[in-house]
Amino acid sequence: MRRPLRVVQWTTGNVARKTVRAVLARRDLDLVGCYAWSADKVGRDVGELCRLDVETGILATDDVAALLALRPDCVLYTPLRFDVDEVSRILRAGVNVVTSAEFLTGRTLGEDARATIRAAAEAGAASIFGSGMNPGFAQLLGAVATGVCEEVRHVRAVESVDVSLFASDSNQDGLGWGRPMGDPGHADAVRAAVAVFEDGVEVLADTMGIELDDVGCHVGFAAAVHDLDLPGRPIAAGTVAGLDLRYVGIVDGVEVLELHQRWVMSRELEPPMPVEHGYRIEVDGSPRITLTLGIMPDQPLETLTVEDLHGIGMTITGMPVVHAIPGVVAARPGIVTYADLPVVASPLTSAPGRRPTGSA
Ligand SMILES: NC(=O)c1ccc[n+]([C@@H]2O[C@H](COP(=O)([O-])OP(=O)(O)OC[C@H]3O[C@@H](n4cnc5c(N)ncnc54)[C@H](OP(=O)(O)O)[C@@H]3O)[C@@H](O)[C@H]2O)c1
Asked: Which domain holds residue 37?
């Protein structure tokens, strides 16, 4: 049997709580280190920082050189912000990177930053892969759904979610919830905050083997009908509480790919923005395909806390990057996407403290 792959977790925020748990549960992955961005986390056990019921013996550190000296196979990079210099240093040291943090192809960062990352990866013979649920895994689903079609004219991936559970998350800060309707510059601010969806369009195109001429973005808004008393993010009636975002991939002047995100902080909006809670792929082709990914808790709903429900969102964000680790470690050096990896799937594992459901 191959030795387990050595993994360093980079920061211990929301997504990390799930990725660390999953790494500990997988026999083919070994947690060997952890980076702390927050000074007060240095020296503390990763199990405690990730609110797990286990002591891992791995203490968080802000000493990057010491972490790289551990010679990890992969860094699981889940900070709030993607840092080009930091990631380049890791890659240049020969360490692969999987990330949920605002990076899939590097398109959004601009050509200079993308070239820096590519050069660092090639110098270190390492690979970098970015995903999450959306952008990320949802684009793999979109590409896979076209696999039975004889003809494909348009592919649309829809994420439609009440995001009020995530209201206080830092990655919601740039979306301008609660700004006045029609506020000048708001649409541009939203585009900038979630520009990584451009990378998502590129991933879908790459995985389908399409060359895009351009990527565009349309933004729509809806207002709260009532005041919303959301933790950390109160929203006044009449201000923005619904966002409808369409990132489109264009070939020969025609929109052929679409990532459609509908995020609402309330069900009562004007104009109405109904949500379905989940992910749907629609392929306009021959034949026409619809693929729905329904996501439900594995415990009775009434037993779950708000934190448990929030955690489901973090699980589906983190697992695509954890399960990609073996494929990314084996991949060619450079920026890799779902187009370059074997199918990303989960072995039968069980989380710490739960009965195994099969051999991992
Ligand atoms: N594609 C998807 O489906 C998807 C979905 C959700 C989230 N995401 C992305 O995944 C990443 C992690 O999300 P999260 O909710 O886990 O983030 P988070 O908990 O808000 O932050 C993660 C960690 O980043 C560090 N941090 C805080 N502020 C920072 C800053 N200004 N610059 C650099 N690092 C900072 C902290 O490290 P310490 O642990 O040391 O304090 C924090 O715990 C984000 O980039 C988010 O946008 C992607």
From this structure: 5-130+314-336
